Amino acid sequence: MHTNNLSRKPWTGRQALILMALCLSIGIGGGWLIRSVQKTTPVDAAKSASPSPAAAPAAPAAPATSPADLKSMADSQAAPLLQQLKSDPANSEILTGIGNLYYDAQQYSTAVDFYNRALKSKPSDAAVRTDMATAYWYLGNTDSAIAEFNKALTYAPNSPNTLFNLGLVKWQGKHDSAGAIADWKKLLAANPNYESKDKVIKMLDEVEKQASSAK
User: How many folded domains does the chain comprise?
Assistant: First the structure.
């Protein structure tokens, strides 16, 4: 939520959903933002699979990857896609794939640029617009994040990830508890089997308690 105010995950394999897990009890600098599901792109073939926590053996913590190293990896992986783009500059899937690489590398300004180009070719792609909004949030641009989340909802009114992230940004970026509660209640009503339902319920409870104590 996009964000995305939060620290982004280190470079890993492509994941459909990415939760930014920060403890609610100490305050969420940016919240738990969920990455929207993207269509399969050439990027997926270039990335190695990330093992699930259950399957991976315990290992010593690795040193944090520097922003320069992350950018270098993104540049390297984006190179073949950029080459493809020369012959098909308006290809929304290639543009999105490049945006995803830079998003995962925490190069949010570059990700936004490529997402914007992808959306010029396919403005109705709510998933891409949601990820772009989340990138804006990571850049500290709350107003642009909210505007893009709202625009995504004009194409996919009940998109659970968009509503999830929008609520977080309203709560954390605008201190709009009522707006966050409304978005999350809409999410649950429209998506009763949402896989992150427990997280939504937990956040609703937290925000409603805060709103009640503030009265």
Answer: 1
